[in-house]
Structure formats: structure tokens, C-alpha cells
Design a protein that fits this description.
In the N-terminal section; belongs to the aspartokinase family. Its cofactor is a metal cation. With 932 residues, the chain is of the alpha/beta class. Strand 15 and strand 16 form a beta hairpin. Helix 26 crosses helix 27.
Length: 932
């Protein structure tokens, strides 16, 4: 093809579009009327169907609703039902004049964009992609209507395809893609889609036709190209209302008349249905353009204003606008109603159900916008209508109160996010002057067309931080380096920094105005979820608060905020290690029977995500968790995997629930070595294990500091005294300013039972055997009989009162000889060798009216701790200790005359399990502290 032929091809394509655009209003002169007021011209040209008692209704369908022939049928049938009045509860059973705005079928726009992009490098590939697009549309068309209807439409599509090929072929000569070319080609998806839907409607013998919006919808566009997917603006595209109204009225009076749509008998159920292409438009000079990506919503509200419509319905594949993205927050639900201002804020901050620009025409005429589900049309969805009061109006009518004071009223409507954000920061510009810095900074952003999403400025050192789209981050830094080149060289500007991989998370709702406690609830929920905040901004209208967080934390932040404002029940993701052991089994049973306590009393729903023993572990497939009444049965199923602490940790770290709990029912050193890592990730830990608590002091202090630094919870009440509140009492004494001098008592349920049971008829070894059978003893009975079990508890208590001691610092009297202590498989029967010795000590104690008790002492002033067998008289609190009890006595400044005593049953897995459950209650009570 010669250069002349190429130029002729380009000219032909331009003339073709321009001539078709001006077909219905060739004599209209351009006048740029504002949409802020209903002009006389617009008012005169509103299309009012003759004979109808109802105003127009506009329905918009996106590409996801038009992906297959069956979906086109679904859309068509829904339109017929709505237009007839049979499914329209607002029409009084009378037919309603109806307009449908359609997008291209699902995926079509991307294919057409690919055609243009491919043409520069591989024309054959472009032809192949275009053929795929065309044949897909024609195949779909053939499934909807007979040949006598589709033949002309198919011919139109193929002719359009030839025009597209001629147009894109010229691109290879100029080696670039003019924006008008991209807009012309991409708009054919809507043109084909509108004809396809209209073909199906024709098979139903109803008055209908389709409109190519390019000859009708006139706009003033300040930008070119298609824009970004999901962008929150239409790039300065403004409708020319008067001109468009005249063209639409001309179409109605000519084509509408010819198609029999003007004289419909509405009372008999007959109504016109007009199908209109979304997305596409033209300038007044006849240049084709678009309303940019996601602009079909805008098309719908523009035509609704032109028609004086009573409502606009945006048909989506969700049940309206949700409180949060349900893909990220499974508990999210549909919002019944929103004000326009709230919808605009939600859309701006990433909720892509509604396009921000689409709100404007409806706001001006107060046209309600409904968001409904095409797959669930019976559901009412969300209605958007009305304005939020200004801050001044709110101040005059509202007294500032804490939002929790209004029981049952939630101040926010939704929580949303914008992903792929970068932070651009300028620091250390103190010598220039704050106003100059801000002016220069924002000027650089504006001059380089960089979209600033959020801005914050600190008065100190004139530091400025803005959030920008991630793909504009490098461009923003380059712009600032150029603008502040001299200041950077002189070091009057400290630094410019770019941080990518960020997201904006925002809470939105008109109820936030003049309500205190909103920010604290929001920030507190993020803090408890271990989400770090990099930037905070609040809109002056008090309708939104936005923060910037790491993108990896976005889902956890969304779920935490959603729970924080009780938009959903607080959920706790629980992983149980050692669930098949004696304590683990007892805890699982208690959790199964008492889970309603968590739900009903605290509003916290426990979800078991992982259950594991030493060999296997079962992992939940979704956020609902494993069946709580059959947890251990999951370890018998085929889906289980080998027990692996690394894999278990990775699964828990990947869980986006802000409230994650690991319950370690084992006494495993290998498991306890992961506590520090779990706590550093903000994962709460509950465990009766003493391996770390009584282990090396340095490691204990390291993990304790990790827990404090991350505001994670480490609950270990059951490590000392099972269900008895011993450690809680210690903390209460210290935190209320009391000074502990001495602690003594007995903390071995096993030895309490044995020493209370054995006598002349029941040897010591036999009593120990009974304790083992009853589940009181440790798996390795040497821990009980050597005194190491009690010594570990002593270390834990001593460390709570500020004593830096190791296990080896505790003086321990053992019941075992060296030979017995060396036996790794020690059984109670092996202790028959000490039965005689123990009987002698018992008889000696009885002779002095005393009883044997295995006791401990902690003396704070001397730093001395010991565990020993003692014969106590009736003045000692241990004298009346029962066989399954523990006892601890605190001697403090306040309890000098008489010690504070904590005493109760503490032997057996059921009591240990109840202590773990109590720890879980304490933990989850913290999760639910923000409940109103």
C-alpha cells in the first residue's frame, strides 16, 4: 500500500465516523451549556412518551452481564418484565418506557484494544484477534435470533471489521497509535452489543430499536485515550446537554416514530425499549471519543437526565453496594441506602460498583440510582439518593457525642481500599518556607499530570507526603527532583523518598460527622490486627478517614475495621496444636459445648482453621473453618497433611483475619521455639507449656519483649495451677502497687494427690499409679517425682515478680534416686524401692500431728527459691489441702498480718482445659472491647 493509499484510508475512516455522527443534528451549533442547571433548551427537548403515566426508567448492563447468549437473554427478559410493569412495583402495573444502556460483551473491549496494539508490530496477529472478536459476537448473535433478523446485523459487524482493519493498517506507516484511533476501535464493542441485544428483543415482538450514541451524545473532552480501568474520573468529559437533548429528540421523532414506539398502548402492557450504546460519544466537531473506562455508568445517568427519568438501575453481579469487598471480607453485606456524597467517597476510594462521575447528573436532578443484582433481581439492592448535610448544617442540628452512645447505630456505611499506591515524601525543607514548598511540590505534580490521592504536610521541617498511583510514583519523583534541583544541591531539601507496595484503606459514612471515637475505633482495630499505618488523612466533611498501609496488610486491615465497627461479628481464627492429647481433647470438647458463650456474650465467633497433633494436621479450606464439633475427626480424613510447624506457621501468617490465635496444648520444646515468631506477626498464643516460660532466661526475656513490641497477647495462666487465677493475682498485686515479699504453697496436683492418698495400706508407688490413671500426672512421671514440674512453676511465678532466675537456681528436693531419675521409661511400679522410706516419713509426721506436703517457697528479698517435702502442722494453710488441690499464699505489704490465699482444684486435663478456655475468654474479650 502506498503512502497516498494509507492517507486515504485514514481520511475515509475519519469521514465515515464524522458523517455518521452528524446524521441526526447537522445544523446544531456548539454551545457549551452547563449541567448544573436545567436549561430551557434541555427542558423543551426532554423526551416524554405520549400516553404514558410513568416516566422513563433507565437500566445499565455491564460486560459481565453480557458475556454469553444466555446472559443476553436474561437481560432481555428482565427488560421486558420491567417495561411491562409486571415486575415493577413502582409502575402500578402499567407499562414503563424503558431505556437500556449496554457495555460491550465481556472481554470485547480488551480484544479490540489488543487489535490496535498488535497492529504496530504484527498485523497478522491484529487480524487474528479481530476475527476472534467478530466471530465470537456473530456466534452469540446467531443463538439469539433467526437469520431474518441477524443477517443485517452480521453484515454491519463485518463491515465494521473491514473499517477497523483499514484504520489500524495505516498505523504501521505512522508507527504510533493516535488516541482517536483507539477510541474509535474500542467503541465498536458497545455498537455490536447494542445491536445484539436489540435482535433478541425483536424476537419478542415489542416496539424496540437501538441507538448508536455517537451521533447523539455530544461531549466536551479535555483528555484523550481510554483511561485506566477502574479509574475514579472520566478525564474531564462533560456532556453538551442542549445539543444532545436536541439530537435525542430528533431521533425519537423520526426513528422512534417509524418503529412504532411513540404511540404505545401502555395500559395494555406495551412499552418501548430503546437500547443505547454506553461508553461512546463524540465531540461537537464530529470527532469520536469515549467516556473512558467504566464510563457506561456515566452514559446511563446522562441519558437519565436527558429523559427526565424517574430512576436509574445499575445491574451488577452483586446484591448492591457492599459494606466492603466481599472477596476480601466474607462477612460484608449489602447496604440498603446511601447518600450521593457517601457513594462518591466510596467510589473515589476504590469501591468499583459505582463510577464517581456517574453520580453527577443524578445529583443535580435528584434521580435515585439503584444498584441491583441481575442474577438475583428480587433482591432490592442499594438505592443512592439525597445529599448529606454540610458540616455547618450538622453542627447546627447535632451535638457531638461518642458514636457508641447511639446504641445500634453504626456511623459508617462502608470500608474500601485503593491498591497499588505509592508514597512520595519530601523531607527536611525547613529553610525554604512551608508555603513555598507546598506550592512548588503540588505544582510539580500538576505540571506532570500526576494524580494526587492524599496529601499530608507536617509543620516541622516542611515535610510533605502524598499518595499517588503506584505506576506514577517514579514519574512523581522525577518531577520533584527537577523542580527542587537547586534545593537538593544546596541540601536545603533533605531527601525525596518513594515507597511502593502501599494501599489506601478508608472508612466512609455521613454518621461520622460530629461523632467522637470514630478514629480511635478505626486505629485501634488496625493496631490490634498488627497493621502499621504510614499516613492518615481525614476529609474536611468528616465523612471519611483514610490511612495508607502496606498492600500485603490491606485485607487484614479491611476485616479488622469491619469487625471494629461491628459491621460483622468478630471472628477469631484458632489453630489448635496437640488437639488429640488429654488436655487438647478436653479443650476441644469444652470449646464445642461452650462456643455460644463466646458468640452470645462477647460477640466473637471462634473458627478452627488448623488442628494438629505430632503426626498430622488438618487445614480449613475456607474462612468458615473446620467443623467445631468434629475437629479431631478431621485428622482421620484423606485431606490431612504431615505435621510441619513451618507449613502451619505459613498458613497462619497468610490468614487475613486480624484476630489469630494459636493454642498450644503440648509440652513440646520444638513448638515453644515458634512463640517468638508467632508473636512478632501479631498472632496471639495461649499455652499451658512451661518450656519457654521456665526455660533459659535470655530467651524468655527476648520473647516477652517481642510480645510487648507487637501488642500481641501471650496467655499462659494454665502453666501454673491449671484453672486457678494465680498469675492473674500476681499481676493484680504488682499493678496495684503492692510489694510481694514471700510466696509459698503447693503447686503439684500429682503430689497433692499422692501425699494425701498413700498410707500403710496404699504404698507411695500405688498412689502414684492411681494419679497416673486419673490423668493427674505428666506424661513423664519423673517431672512430678523429681520436683522439676513444681520448680518450673516456681520460676514462672518468680519471674512475674521481677526475679531473674533460671531453673537451676531453684533448690529442689527429689523423691528419686539417681538410678530412678536416669530411667527414661520410669513407671510408678519402679518406685516401690522408695515405698518404705516414704512410709517412715509419713509415720513420723503423723506422730507429731503433722501431714506431708510437697511445698515451695519464693523469698523476694533473698532471691531464694526452693521445692521440698515438709511435714506441716495445723497452723499451715497446706495442712487441710485436699487430694486434688493446689494452694498458694502471698505475703505482701497489704497482706502482712494474714496472707492472701488462692486455693482450689487443679489436677486433671478437664481443669487445665477450662483454664485454657478462660484464657481464650480473656483474649477474645479484648477483641470485642470496641462493641457498642
Amino acid at each position: 500500500m502506498t503512502r497516498l493509499q494509507v492517507l486515504q484510508t485514514c481520511l475515509y475512516a475519519s469521514v465515515f465516523v464524522i458523517s455518521s455522527v452528524n446524521a441526526f443534528a447537522p445544523n446544531v451549533k456548539p454551545t457549551f451549556s452547563s449541567s448544573s442547571q436545567l436549561t430551557a433548551t434541555l427542558a423543551e427537548n426532554i423526551v416524554t412518551p405520549k400516553g404514558s403515566d410513568n416516566d422513563w426508567e433507565v437500566h445499565k448492563f455491564g460486560g459481565a452481564s453480557l458475556a454469553t447468549a444466555e446472559l443476553y437473554k436474561t437481560v432481555g427478559d428482565l427488560l421486558i418484565a420491567e417495561a411491562s410493569g409486571s415486575k415493577n412495583d413502582r409502575s402500578g402495573g402499567v407499562a414503563v418506557p424503558t431505556m437500556a444502556i449496554v457495555s460491550a460483551r465481556g472481554g470485547m473491549t480488551d480484544l479490540l484494544v489488543q487489535v490496535v496494539d498488535s497492529a504496530l508490530v504484527d498485523f497478522e496477529e491484529a487480524k487474528k484477534v479481530l476475527n476472534e472478536a467478530v466471530e465470537g459476537q456473530i456466534k452469540l448473535l446467531s443463538e439469539l435470533a433467526p437469520l431474518e433478523i441477524t443477517a443485517k446485523i452480521e453484515a454491519n459487524i463485518r463491515n465494521d471489521a473491514n473499517d477497523i482493519l483499514l484504520l489500524v493498517q495505516s498505523l504501521r506507516m505512522i508507527n504510533t497509535v493516535p488516541s482517536v484511533t483507539m477510541e474509535v476501535v474500542s467503541g465498536y464493542g458497545e455498537i455490536w452489543s447494542a445491536q445484539t441485544l436489540n435482535a433478541y428483543l425483536q424476537t419478542k415482538n415489542i416496539p424496540c430499536d437501538w441507538i448508536d450514541a455517537r451521533p447523539i451524545l455530544m461531549v466536551k473532552s479535555d483528555s484523550s485515550g481510554l483511561g485506566e480501568k477502574g479509574a475514579a474520573a472520566t478525564g474531564g468529559v462533560l456532556p453538551l446537554w442542549d445539543e444532545t437533548a436536541i439530537r435525542l429528540k430528533n431521533w425519537w421523532n423520526t426513528v422512534g416514530h417509524d418503529k412504532g414506539m411513540i404511540d404505545c398502548d401502555y395500559k395494555s402492557g406495551q412499552s418501548p425499549i430503546v437500547v443505547v450504546t454506553g461508553f461512546v460519544a463524540s465531540t461537537i466537531d464530529g470527532v469520536p471519543t469515549t467516556l473512558k473506562r467504566s464510563g457506561s455508568d456515566y452514559s446511563a445517568t446522562i441519558f437519565a437526565k436527558l429523559l427526565g427519568a424517574s430512576r436509574v438501575t445499575m445491574w451488577k453481579n452483586t446484591d448492591g453496594v457492599y459494606t466492603a469487598d466481599p472477596r476480601r471480607v466474607p462477612e460484608a453485606f449489602s447496604i440498603g441506602s446511601l447518600k450521593y456524597d457517601e457513594a462518591l467517597e466510596l467510589a473515589y476510594f476504590g469501591a468499583q460498583v459505582l463510577h464517581p462521575s456517574a453520580m453527577v447528573p443524578c445529583i443535580e436532578d435528584n434521580i435515585p440510582v439503584y444498584v441491583r443484582n441481575i442474577f438475583n433481581p428480587e433482591f432490592p439492592g442499594t438505592v443512592v439518593q439525597g445529599r448529606s448535610p454540610t458540616l455547618k448544617e450538622t453542627a447546627l442540628t447535632t451535638k457531638s457525642t461518642n458514636w457508641r452512645a447511639n446504641k445500634g447505630v453504626i456511623p459508617i456505611k462502608g470500608i474500601t481500599s485503593v491498591d497499588k499506591v505509592a508514597l512520595v515524601t519530601l523531607e527536611g525543607a525547613s529553610t525554604i518556607g512551608g508555603s513555598n514548598v507546598a506550592e512548588k511540590f503540588m505544582g510539580a505534580m500538576a505540571d506532570n499530570d500526576i494524580n494526587v490521592l492524599i496529601i499530608t504536610q507536617a509543620s516541622s521541617e516542611s515535610s510533605i507526603c502524598v499518595a499517588v498511583p503506584e505506576n506514577e510514583g517514579d514519574k512523581a519523583i522525577a518531577a520533584l527532583q527537577s523542580s527542587f534541583e537547586l534545593e537538593l544541591a544546596r541540601s536545603t531539601v533533605g531527601s525525596l523518598n518513594l515507597n511502593k507496595g502501599m494501599s489506601i484503606v478508608a472508612i466512609i459514612g455521613e454518621g461520622m460527622a460530629y461523632a467522637s471515637g470514630i478514629s480511635s475505633t478505626f486505629m485501634g482495630s488496625l493496631s490490634r490486627a498488627n497493621v502499621n499505618i504510614r499516613l492518615i488523612a481525614q476529609g474536611s466533611s468528616e465523612r471519611q478517614i483514610a490511612v495508607v498501609v502496606k498492600q500485603a496488610d490491606t485485607t487484614r486491615a479491611l476485616r479488622a475495621a469491619h469487625m471494629g465497627f461491628t459491621l460483622s461479628d468478630t471472628a477469631a481464627s484458632i489453630s489448635i496444636i496437640g488437639s488429640t492429647g488429654s488436655i487438647g481433647k478436653a479443650f476441644v470438647e469444652q470449646l464445642s459445648t461452650q462456643r455460644r458463650t463466646l458468640i452470645d456474650e462477647l460477640g466473637v465467633c471462634p473458627r478452627i482453621m488448623i488442628t494438629a497433633n505430632t503426626k498430622k494436621m488438618a487445614i480449613a479450606k475456607d474462612s468458615r473453618g473446620l467443623p467445631i464439633d468434629a475437629i479431631n475427626e478431621q485428622l482421620e480424613k484423606d485431606e490431612v497433611v504431615d505435621a510441619d510447624l513451618e507449613k502451619l506457621t505459613a498458613e497462619i501468617e497468610a490468614d487475613v483475619n486480624p484476630h489469630r490465635v494459636i493454642i498450644d496444648c503440648t509440652n513440646s520444646k520444638a513448638v515453644s521455639e515458634y512463640y517468638g515468631r508467632w508473636l512478632s506477626e501479631g498472632i496471639d498464643v495461649i499455652s499451658p507449656s512451661r518450656k519457654l516460660l521456665a526455660g533459659p532466661l535470655a530467651e524468655y526475656k527476648r520473647v516477652t519483649q517481642i510480645q510487648k513490641n507487637n501488642i500481641a497477647n501471650w496467655q499462659y495462666e494454665t502453666s501454673v495451677g491449671s484453672a486457678l487465677p494465680i498469675l492473674t493475682t500476681v499481676r493484680d498485686l504488682i499493678e496495684t502497687g503492692d510489694k510481694v515479699h514471700k510466696i509459698r504453697g503447693s503447686l503439684s496436683g500429682t503430689m497433692s494427690y499422692v501425699l494425701s492418698t498413700f498410707d500403710e495400706d496404699t504404698p507411695f508407688s500405688k498412689a502414684l499409679e492411681q494419679a497416673v490413671e486419673m490423668g493427674f500426672a505428666e506424661n513423664d512421671i519423673r517431672e512430678d517425682t523429681s520436683g522439676i514440674d513444681m520448680a518450673g512453676k516456681v520460676v514462672i511465678i518468680a519471674r512475674q515478680i521481677g526475679m531473674d532466675i533460671e531453673l537451676g537456681d531453684v533448690e529442689v528436693e527429689s523423691f528419686l534416686t539417681d538410678d530412678l531419675a536416669a530411667n527414661e521409661d520410669l513407671k510408678p511400679k519402679d518406685l516401690e524401692s522408695i515405698d518404705e522410706i516414704m512410709l517412715e516419713r509419713l509415720q513420723k509426721a503423723k506422730a507429731d500431728d503433722r501431714v506431708l506436703r510437697y511445698k515451695f517457697e519464693i523469698v523476694k528479698e533473698t532471691g531464694k527459691c526452693r521445692c521440698f517435702l515438709d511435714a506441716v502442722d495445723n497452723t499451715d494453710p497446706l495442712f487441710r489441702l485436699k487430694s486434688i488441690e493446689n494452694l498458694i499464699a502471698f505475703e505482701t505489704d497489704r497482706y502482712a498480718a494474714s496472707p492472701l490465699i488462692v486455693k482450689g482444684a487443679a489436677a486433671g486435663p478437664e481443669l487445665a482445659a477450662s483454664g485454657i478456655f478462660a484464657d481464650l475468654l480473656r483474649l477474645t474479650r479484648g477483641y470485642s472491647t470496641e462493641r457498642p
